[in-house]
Every structure is written in structure tokens, then in C-alpha cells.
């Protein structure tokens, strides 16, 4: 079943083309199960529709602290449900609320430029 549609067929598909296999049932047999089709879109109509789109309004701003608080509350609720349903001892308490950590910033060390030659023998400087 893995090779019903060869990878070479899938690899050569153009944008908008798709292939597939339809499964049937014993009551409703399908004679042509494999298909190769193409989406035909009206690009002008799509562009016109997209031009009429309105921006999504901002309902409220959500901070990292709001997200963290919500995450902890959901996690505690799930733990409470598991404890109640599975009769887990109450000693296993809720997750303690953690203080938000400062965002880590990736520190990129300065890398010196590397001088080299191209295949044609020209000097080339590469900065990483």
C-alpha cells in the first residue's frame, strides 16, 4: 500500500496538483480509486476577495505572565482531576507557581572573516 502512488509521481507534481487513492466499502465499490487532479483557481477573484479583507481587531493584549498563570491553572486542574479520578493521595500537591524567567537571548560570539578563493581563483571574504 505504501507504493500505490510512487514517490517519483509525487515529486514531479506542480503547484496545485494532487494525487490520491479513494477507499471504498464492500457495499459501494469504486472502480477508479486512484486520481490525479489539479486545482483550478480564479486568481483575479481571489485577489479581489483578499483586497476586501479587514484586519483582525485586537481584543486584548496577553502578556507572558498571563500565559504562565493560565498554564499553571490548567495544569493544576488536570492534576486535581487525575487525583480525584484515580484516588491519588492528596500529598501530591499542585504545581507551584514559578516566577517568570527572563527571556534568554542567544549570544553570538564575534567570528572573524574568513578569506578564501573562489573556483575561478578570485579573492573572496566570507563573514560567518
Protein described:
Among the domains are: 7-51, no CATH class; 56-99. The chain is flat. The chain is of the alpha+beta class. The strands form 2 sheets. The chain has a two-stranded antiparallel ribbon. It has a two-stranded antiparallel ribbon with strand order 3-4. It is 29% helix and 14% strand.
Q: Span between N and C termini?
A: 46 Å
Task: Give the low-confidence spans.
Answer: none
The chain-level mean pLDDT equals 77
- Give me the side-by-side strand order of the main sheet: 1-2
**Order of secondary-structure elements:** HEEHHEE
Number of helical elements: 3
Computed structural class = alpha+beta
What does the overall shape look like? flat
User: In angstroms, what is the radius of gyration?
Assistant: 29 Å
Helix content: 25-40%
Features:
128 residues, two-stranded antiparallel sheet, 4 strands, flat
Q: Could you provide a short overview of the structure?
A:
By secondary structure, this protein is α+β, with helices and mostly antiparallel strands. It is built from 3 helices and 4 strands; from the N terminus they run H-E-E-H-H-E-E.
Helix-strand layout with pairing:
Elements: H1 7-11, E1 17-21, E2 34-38, H2 43-51, H3 64-86, E3 114-117, E4 123-126
Antiparallel strand pairs: 1-2, 3-4
Amino acid at each position: 500500500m505504501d507504493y500505490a502512488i510512487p514517490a517519483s509521481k509525487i515529486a514531479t507534481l506542480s503547484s496545485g496538483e494532487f494525487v490520491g487513492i479513494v477507499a471504498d466499502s464492500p457495499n459501494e465499490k469504486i472502480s477508479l480509486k486512484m486520481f490525479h487532479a489539479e486545482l483550478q483557481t480564479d486568481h483575479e477573484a481571489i485577489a479581489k476577495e483578499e483586497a476586501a479583507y479587514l484586519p483582525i481587531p485586537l481584543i486584548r493584549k496577553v502578556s507572558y505572565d498571563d500565559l504562565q498563570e493560565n498554564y499553571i491553572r490548567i495544569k493544576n486542574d488536570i492534576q486535581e482531576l487525575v487525583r480525584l479520578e484515580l484516588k491519588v493521595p492528596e500529598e501530591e500537591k499542585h504545581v507551584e507557581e514559578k516566577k517568570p524567567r527572563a527571556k534568554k537571548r542567544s549570544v553570538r560570539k564575534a567570528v572573524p572573516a574568513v578569506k578564501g578563493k573562489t573556483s575561478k581563483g578570485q579573492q573572496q571574504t566570507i563573514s560567518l
